[in-house]
Write a structure and sequence with these properties.
Strand order of the largest sheet: 2-1-7-6-5
Largest sheet: 5 strands, antiparallel
Shape: globular
Helix content: 40-55%
Strand content: 5-15%
Bound molecules: 6-diazenyl-5-OXO-L-norleucine
Mean pLDDT: 91
Order of helices and strands: HHHHEEEHHHHHHHHEHHHEEEH
Number of strands: 7
Length: 352
């Protein structure tokens, strides 16, 4: 009698287990729900953990060579993730619109490649890390290409000078329209940032004139600096920035609008340049610790790309010596390490 009952109990357990597996699915089935969220709850928990861990970190200081940036509230702190299947996760100050600054350089590079092809852009700009600060004059003198790469100021101003148009307005509107298509919504210039930077950008004008001496700028130097200053003053919030990153993670296709905004053949050139020079003279340390293509801006934003999966954007105004947001670096490093997102890790790219 006892044996019959125990067999009956085992049978009930087996049936229960079968129903549970079929209905809920094993962990690997959940993995397939989203390429970026093996388990959305897990990603959210890790981002929250990082946010709490670094929330009170007040290391670094706001950029102050652009007066507007010095008075941005340094406590602002926002994190956004957008996956290639357009899942969005946000935490903190994600609605605050800050200036995109050097992150714009990624998208002007994409537009220049769209217009000219990647070979011509490579010939005219180059792609060597300078190992020097982003606004270095000696780098322009010493680098064989003078322009260095599209992400240092000199190379970025030269990249902007490649954009075609009948006049300055047409070139600028083309750039702004392109950024908006990448963000999946209309972006606008923060006029106060533009005015503040335009009044204090003698250094960039000097770089442009130096490039002219080497014949490495391809339109009027001061016009190019002005358009470049406008592109750096475009306002974005963390979520818009994460979506701009997700376009790169998604082979150039905007996961929200479905538009192929950047040619997929251009994406590897952009990501490799981000890996080598995205954080300027902090890029080697970043590659060592994080191993993801990323780009920083002195406005306090950083985007990091996980190819095929998605992008994370963090906004926090306090910067380190190289001009990279301190908390943004820490949050991205923490999240990427926990989720094993690293271009150079065999287990991360599916080799192990
Ligand atoms: O030209 C400049 O100096 C700024 N508009 C952009 C520099 C920047 O964002 C460097 N990034 N970390």
């Amino acid at each position: 009698m006892f044996r019959i009952r125990s067999r009956f109990v085992s049978l009930i357990f087996a049936a229960y287990f079968l129903v549970a597996v079929v209905c809920v699915g094993p962990a690997s089935a959940q993995t397939k729900r989203s390429p970026v969220a093996p388990n959305r709850e897990r990603v959210e928990a890790i981002v929250r953990e990082a946010y709490d861990k670094f929330r009170s970190d007040s290391t670094g200081k706001n950029a102050d060579y652009i007066p507007y940036l010095a008075q941005v509230d340094p406590r602002l702190f926002g994190v956004a993730i957008v996956s290639t299947d357009n899942q969005v996760f946000e935490l903190g100050d994600v609605n605050y619109s800050f200036s995109i600054q050097s992150i714009s350089k990624v998208y002007t590079l994409a537009l220049a490649m769209e217009e000219l092809g990647y070979d011509k852009v490579f010939q005219r700009i180059g792609s060597e890390p300078t190992g020097r600060p982003f606004n270095s004059v000696p780098a322009v003198v010493d680098m064989p290409t003078h322009t260095g790469n599209p992400f240092v100021n000199a190379g970025a101003i030269a990249t902007t000078s490649l954009i075609s148009g009948r006049n300055e307005d047409e070139k600028w509107n083309k750039i702004l329209d392109f950024y908006s298509r990448v963000a999946g919504e209309k972006l606008v210039l923060i006029d106060e940032v533009y005015k503040s930077e335009a009044a204090t950008n003698a250094g960039n004008k000097a770089l442009a004139m130096l490039l002219a001496k080497y014949e490495r700028i391809y339109a009027d130097p001061f016009e190019s600096v002005d358009i470049y200053t406008k592109q750096c003053s475009v306002g974005v919030n963390a979520t818009q920035l994460a979506r701009m990153g997700a376009v790169l993670a998604n082979n150039g296709r905007n996961p929200a609008t479905g538009e192929q905004v950047i040619k997929s053949e251009d994406v590897p050139y952009i990501l490799s340049t981000m890996t080598m020079a995205g954080l300027y003279d902090g890029s080697g340390s970043w590659a060592w610790h994080v191993g993801l293509p990323a780009k920083s801006g002195v406005g306090g934003g950083i985007i990091a790309i996980v190819p095929g999966k998605g992008a994370i954007a963090v906004f926090s105004p306090r910067l380190d010596e190289a001009g990279n947001s301190v908390r943004a670096q820490k949050v991205i490093e923490f999240v990427a390490n926990k989720l094993d997102f690293n271009l150079f890790s065999p287990s991360s790219v599916g080799l192990k």
